[in-house]
Amino acid sequence: MTSSTSLSRDENGTRPPDPATAVVEAAGLGVAYGRVQALEGVSMSLLRGETALVLGLNGAGKTTLLKALAGLVEAGTGTVRLGGLDVTAMPTHRRARAGLSLVPEGRGVLPGLSVRDNILLGLHTAPRRRRRSEHEALDWSTAFFPPLRAKMKQDCSTLSGGEMQMLGTARALVADPKVLMIDEPSLGLAPKATATVYQALGRLQEEGISLLIVEQKSVPLVRDPDRVVVLRSGRVVRELRHALPSPEELSEIYLGGETEKEEGAL
Ligand SMILES: Nc1ncnc2c1ncn2[C@@H]1O[C@H](COP(=O)(O)OP(=O)(O)OP(=O)(O)O)[C@@H](O)[C@H]1O
Ligand SMILES: [Mg+2]
Questions:
Q1: Nearest C-alpha to atom 24 of ligand 1 is from which residue?
Q2: Closest CA to 147 of 94, 90, 214, 192
Q3: What's the CA-to-centroid distance between 3 and ligand 2, angstroms?
Q4: How do residues 20-38 score in pLDDT, each as one tens digit?
Q5: pLDDT per residue over 191-229, tens digit each?
Q6: Measured by CB atoms within 10 angstroms of the end CB, which terminus of the chain is less buried, N or C?
Q7: CA angle 79–60–258, rounded 5-degree value
């Protein structure tokens, strides 16, 4: 087997993971909220160290996909695998231990707690044998998000939107995820703050962390996404490899034009 880059931290004395095994994989995933079919037959996968972007308009099913992967909503059909292991019936906290971290829509930070304490909340999810010390976890995670360093003692509700996004991501990061899923990191941010957040995400990419990022618009700031999946009405209507759709192409896909011939192309 060929060796893969940055395997060392995830190796835990057992067999090294096969680089060809998807770190996360959805196959034929369907989720319904009562009569609303929010996801239908969604399949996608992400290999170690890859970045995937999931795009779609309001109500396309993006958040539902992340929730189904994380185990926050039940999949009516289909399977979720982590590193080849079927986790479809596994509860959220165990999936998190197995390496799936979610930065939810709205960032999920806890007002009333300091920046430091919010970050440390994520540490308890990290598998015990790989858990960093508090000092190490704070130092390592904030290296990706330098603006947080001067604000460690501040109540997190005093942060700007961009800093809040960085905080939610830092917290998810100290859980030592194999896959970091981020729901609309640019939501509500000014272009400058979005750029700063994506700069930090670029550093995570360089570190070899697998990222699954959800956005409504094609964000050209995502560096070289390995996979782009476009959802419409709960279905995958386009998949691209190593390319972002142009804004025109994306509008066309969102509107439903010229997509069917590409469906299932990958
Ligand atoms: N808890 C719920 N109960 C009922 N319907 C829901 C629930 N959550 C989501 N839905 C519906 O499921 C569909 C997909 O919603 P979802 O939140 O996954 O979309 P989204 O792509 O994340 O949208 P947005 O860009 O607005 O965040 C929508 O029709 C939504 O109204
Ligand atoms: Mg959403």
A1: 58
A2: 192
A3: 37
A4: 789 999 999 999 999 999 9
A5: 999 999 999 999 999 998 999 999 998 777 888 899 999
A6: N
A7: 100
